[in-house]
Structure formats: C-alpha cells, structure tokens
Amino acid sequence: MPISLDELRRLLSSDEPDYRAITAAAGPEAAEHLRVLARDDNVMLASKAVYAASLLADAQHVVDEAAASDEPLLRIASASALTNLPEDARNRVAERLIDAGDVAVEKLVIRSLGPSLTPKLEQSLGRLADNSNSQTIRDLSRAKLTDR
Amino acid sequence: MWTHGHTMRVENPAGLASVWRAGFFIRVVGRPNTTNWFHFAVPTSVIVKDKRQMTDSVMLRFRANSTAAAVTAVHVYDGERRIVNHDGLNLSPTAFGLNRFDVPGKPDVLWGIGISIGVRFSGSTDAQNTLEFAAAGCDFKLLETVRLHVKVLTAPTRFTIDQMIAGMRESYEPAGFRVVRASDENLNLPALNVVDVGTCTRGQTTEEQRTLFGNRNNVGTNDVVAYFVQATNPPLNGCAAHPDGRPGAVVASGASRWTLGHEIGHVLGLNHVNDNNRLMTGNGTDNITNPPPDLINSEITTMRNSALTVNP
Hints:
The complex is a heterodimer.
Chain A: H1 5-13, H2 19-25, H3 30-37, H4 43-53, H5 61-67, H6 72-81, H7 87-97, H8 103-112, H9 119-131, H10 135-147
Chain B: E1 2-4, E2 9-10, E3 16-21, E4 26-30, E5 34-42, E6 47-48, E7 51-52, E8 54-64, E9 69-78, E10 81-86, E11 99-102, E12 113-121, E13 130-141, E14 144-152, H1 161-172, E15 177-186, E16 194-196, H2 207-212, E17 224-229, E18 231-233, E19 238-239, E20 248-252, H3 259-267, H4 297-305
Parallel strand pairs in B: 14-15, 14-17, 16-18, 17-20
Antiparallel strand pairs in B: 1-13, 2-5, 3-4, 4-13, 5-12, 6-7, 8-11, 8-13, 9-10, 9-12, 19-20
C-alpha cells in the first residue's frame, strides 16, 4: 500500500525516526513526498526528510537540493546523507558542501568520501589540510588524501 | 504553612485610604489609580525530620469589592532570592476562595518564604478599591529529584532551554519528580556540534558520543547531563544513548519543547509508547495532543527505581 504524505510526515516526526524502517515501508511515491517535506517550515522535519531521501534511490535529488540551501540544518542533513549515496552522486554533492566553511559539515563530508576523489575535492581537501582552523578537519583531510 | 491575613505588611502605606485589621481578615482601601505591594512572611520550617523542605506552591485567600481592585502579581521569595514571579495577573474574586500559584522547580527552601502581592486600584471610590486578605500560605513537599546539568554546544532555535526545562517540569512534577537545574556550562567543541549518534540504541555509543559525554565537569555520579548540539548524525530531535556511568542525552537545536523531558525519560529507563498524550510517545513530541504530556504509573515506578532519581 502506498505511503501517504501525512503518514510519512508522522513517521519522520518521531523524535528518533527509524530511517531504515521508514524507507523499507516507502514505495516510489515517497520520493515526491520527501521533496515536499524537505521544504517544510519545521526545519527539523525537513532535515529528517533530506536524510530519508538519501536512502531511496529515486529521491536523491532532494539531498542535492538541500546542499544548496541557506538553512544550515539542511546542509548538515545533506552532509549526513552523503554516506548513503552512490559514489558519483556523493562526490557531486560533496563538492557543493565541502567549501561551506562549516566545521560540522566539513567533518561529515570528509568522512563520507571514498577512495575515488574528483580533482575539485582533492583541491578542497588539500586546502583544508593546510589551512583549516580545526585540528580535527586538518587531520581528517590529511588522512583522506593519504588513504586514497 | 499558613499565615493569617492580618499579619500582612503594606509597602506603601501612603497609597492607602485606610487599613482595617480584624479577626477574620485585613481590609485595605487603595487610593484611586494607584498600585501597591502587600507582603506576607510565612513561618517556614526549612528542615523537618532531617529533611530539607521543597517549595511546591503558594496560596492566597482574598476577595475584592470590584474588578477595580485587582491582584496583578504574586512574587515569592526565599530569603532575599526571588524564586518565582507570576506577573500579568488580573484577579478580583468576589468571595474568599483558594488561589494557588505554582513554584516551578520546587526549590529547596533555605531561609524562609515571603509572598509579595502586587495590587492595582483603578476605581474612583473607596468601595471599588477595597480588597480583603484572609490568609496566605505555602505548601512544602518532599519529591524525588532529577539533577540535570546543561551543557551547551549550540543553543536550541525553536524553543529556549528555559522553555524545554519548564516543559520537562510540567510532565515530571505532577508525577512526583522535581527537576533541579544543577549547573550550566558552554562547551566549545565545534567538531562535536553535529554529533554522530549511530543507530541511537541504548547501550551502544559512537566514539563521538563517548568523547562528548566525557565532559562531566561538576556532575555527580547520579546526575544527568543534557548536551545541546546543533544536530545529530543522522538527524534526530535527540538521543539518549550514553556510555556506561555517564548518564545523559543529546538534544538537537531543532528539537521540540518536550524533547528534553522525553530523552531524559529514556535515560531514566522509559521506552516509547504509541500515545500522543504521553511524554514517551514514539510518534514525535511535536505531535503531543494534550499538553503537558503525561507519565503513567508504570513509568513513574520505573523512574523511581532508577538510581538517577534521588530520594528526598
């Protein structure tokens, strides 16, 4: 039975949503619902929708869109979701997020990256390895460049 | 503990047209278009049978001759410290009843309770500006205590921490638990501002959770800590999974007013329920239908059995 927008909203409204269970219950119709919920005025709900979208193959454009948002929590959700994306899509979104100047986002992006980096990501990692104000980010960036 | 109305002291006697103390009450007549304060000192036994008492609420019995004589504020002091202020009131009962004013947090009483009553006299005649106080009192209680420490990486955005603690108290206090805000600390840990909570499963923690929960300055063994972060990874309102011996929860900046109480409920051993009238609803505390959300008897028993609720 297709999941409705209201049902998806209810499930994501949980303080601690069970993302795997939600996406297991969701069919193809969920992609459009998640796109709507990712624009909800309740940013907490919207950020959960962004993450849930990363777990559905046909909803990953929601993660891409959130990466360009002015809302920090949506960018963070997008960065959290990177690890669920296929590598090509992950690198594409990561390129948009890695230069955001937000330590929390940078941490999530760097940790999500696989061994295959785009030239732009390599360049950004090199810059962060040398110039980030955060020791954590410098260490993560160096390790990622070393491990590739 | 009660005190009779005729013990009341007037802050500004010149603002009154008359004062009459009788066996049954004190009658004050205010001058037109004035305000005044009336003070009651409540005899206070701060320790009874070796137990320090907690301030539950204060009570007032009074009546007004007209709506032009109105109680507009009730402030409660313990010694020199104001422990609650109820402002914006407009009370002009025509008969002696019992007006109760809650003292959130149920603080320990240390030095003696004083109740200050703000009054507005807006009538043009003595009859309109007449108010009679029969008694004032304070209820003291002994409650189990949750000692909560607040550690802030990022302040919440939808509701303030004060509002979240007030919400927690609204659920916990009727169930017999007071929430003492034991300390506040800001933590400058930008790399943990979005904290990895993994699957947020009881008994399982990530390296980042273990690092964050290691910040327990001034926190006792049986105290709980709420870490206010910008977000969790993945996005949750909060997460109560914590390392052994470091009880606490993280609360995200976009959390609801009830998330703090909900997460600490998990820390005290409570599980989700499918009932939006209860604090532990698994359907999201943003969807609470009849606030404040309830704790039921079986949950109260679980909380009492937790080592993290301290007997009075």
